[in-house]
Amino acid sequence: MPAGLLVVAHKEFVDQLTSRRFLSIFALLLMISALGIYGGAEDYNENLASYSEQLQSATGNDPYSGSLSEKISPLTIFSKMSDYIVLFGTILGIAMGFDLISKEKEEHSLKTLLARPVFRDEIINGKALGSVLALAIALGTAVAVSIAILLLVGIVPTLYDFGAILVFAVVSGIFILVYFSLALLMSTVSKDSGSALITTLIIFVVLSSVVPILGWAAAESITGTPPASPVSAATGSSSIDAGSMQAYQDEMQSYWAKRSAFSSAINLLSPDLNYEKMATAITDPTQAVTMDNNPYSFVEGPPETTPDLGKLLDAIWANALALFVLPCVFFGVAYAAFMRTDIR
Amino acid sequence: MIRTEHLTKDYNGRHAVDDLTMEIGQGEIFGFLGPNGAGKSTTILMLVGMIEPTAGQCFIDEIEVARNPLKVKDIIGYLPEDVGFYGNMTAEQNLDYYARFYPMEASERSKRIKDLLELVHLDGVTQKAGEYSRGMRQRLGLAQALINDPKVLFLDEPTANLDPEGVREYRDLIAHLSDEGKTILVSSHILSEVREVCKTVGLLVKGRLVAKGTIEDVARVLGPADGDLIQIVLETEEQLPRIEDLAIVSMETDGNRAMIRATSDIRSRIVTTLSEQGVHVREISVCTPDIEDVFMSIYRR
């Protein structure tokens, strides 16, 4: 690894970990995650007690006990944590990146730095690397504290659960990286940190809130109005034949499937929706396979058994790809812009 | 040590530096003069490997800068006009960060930083760089430019923001560095500042090098070319008679003294004429055009 890259990365890492801004947001994330996990753990214990009761009834040959639901996974507790990460992770990512380059320009330290025997790409890569390491430590600490709380309240995750928690942490990290890389891009192309922050926040609002709404509206305008019901068409008539009704139902199903597909495709631009689906796939796979990537609806009810990995991947691969591609695109553009930055 | 060949840099179709060819020898203190926007800083940025030339080449110690910018940066020091630092770090921390980019052992690095902070009188200052005055920043700028003990030093407006005491110390430092055999290029638009420290100068106007040499040489070359007349100061033992010469444009006499404005240097003819009339010349000299005036006239072009 080039020496210059490591020097820059080391400085950036130390700067991030010692900055008041980072520490405040990190402390907040840690506190809220811990409280969320603690609350989730209590709910889990209550649900587990209820499950045990159901189990006892089932084994007691009670003919009225009904069907037994699947055992609750401790991973469900982490679904609450994902909500906090969407909010505080976004803030953390933006806070870490919005002045990474612009501050160097404002303080005129970039020219002094570039006078050293270091390539430009080592500077931006080093800054990104140092920040990503700091972020990894922050996220790793939050997850470690969450696991510690689980153990303290008597919930011992299985090896599978530990693996899933690790994947959850990685996916959460990638989600935060989306906004970090966006902020880094804006920091590179903006004249000052204030403009970089404002532009980042505007794009954040667009990606997280406007895209899902626009996605649904755009899908509606593309697919048109839903097919007319034979009931309203047959006003005045006393009977509707079964064939017409079946055709209408098929048409309606096809219409909603198409509309949902359009909406889902547009919503892939929203890191928040992609992350939510990924997080759900980890913490509650049965829900994830039925989500149509649209926050407002489910296509069908969740299956009764946990879907296998193949089915799960089939349901989330597009979201996973989109979540991974976005930070790559943002960083790629930031890299290209930084390499072409006019130093005068 | 520093060489440029037809160095050109265009910005938006305009020549910021236009076909610049010059050479600065080892150990020389070269003053880069010119009005604001003449292309001095752009030239320096190309010489220190921060921007690439549109055309031409530049070499530092025979290393082509555009091809080997990192090799060049290893042996140069650069003080930018608007030098900046990390405001959350002390002078020592800033210098330590910059020093880490060079192949220096920790002990060597530590000693170098200590020596440099003493040199620029920032030793014992515990403030963060963000709290520094402009003068302190400039002094720290000099220290960072020397962190790698460079062979060649580029100083862009080095006395900007320095108080008189700081300027004096800066001049002493330049003299000291010159004694060590370092080649120094000082860029400034202030003639008096360059005059104090530089042995040779180059005058850059609208991206072009219009003159190079000692300040007096440059002034002399540029003066007559500007259409100015030669001024001859004359003092005789006896009362001055009227002098007839076609080259004389005007002559102001005051007893045995005269100020003659002529189209060429006619001192020998004047001496001969006066000698024929039995008048003894006490002093006759060409009054060098005022250097400041010459440079100002160039700046205004």
Structure write-up:
The complex is a heterodimer of chains A (344) and B (301). Chain A has 344 residues and is mainly α. Chain A has one domain (3-59, 70-229, 241-339). Chain A is 76% helix and 0% strand. Chain A contains 13 helices and no strands. The radius of gyration of chain A is 25 Å and the shape is flat. Chain A starts with a helix and ends in a 5-residue tail after the last helix. With 301 residues, chain B is of the alpha/beta class. Chain B has two domains: 2-213, P-loop containing nucleotide triphosphate hydrolases (Rossmann fold), CATH 3.40.50; 228-289, Alpha-Beta Plaits, CATH 3.30.70. Chain B is built from ten helices and 14 strands. In chain B, helix 3 (91-99) packs across helix 4 (106-119) and helix 8 (215-225) packs across helix 10. Chain B is elongated, with a radius of gyration of 24 Å. The model of chain B has no long low-confidence stretch (mean pLDDT 88). The A-B interface holds A 3-4, 7, 11, 15, 104, 107-119, 342-344 and B 41-42, 45, 48, 50-51, 70-71, 73-74, 76-78, 80, 82-88, 97-98, 100-102, 141, 144-145.
CATH superfamily of the largest domain in chain B: P-loop containing nucleotide triphosphate hydrolases
Q: How would you state the average pLDDT of chain B, rounded?
A: 88
Let me know the average pLDDT of chain A: 83
How would you describe the shape of chain A? flat
**Number of DSSP helical runs of chain B:** 10
What is the number of helices of chain A? 13
What overall form of chain B do the CA principal axes indicate?
elongated
**Helix percentage of chain B:** 25-40%
Features:
heterodimer; A: 344 residues; mainly alpha; 13 helices; 76% helix; flat; B: 301 residues; alpha/beta; Rossmann fold; Alpha-Beta Plaits; 2 domains; 6-stranded mixed β-sheet; 4-stranded antiparallel β-sheet; 14 strands
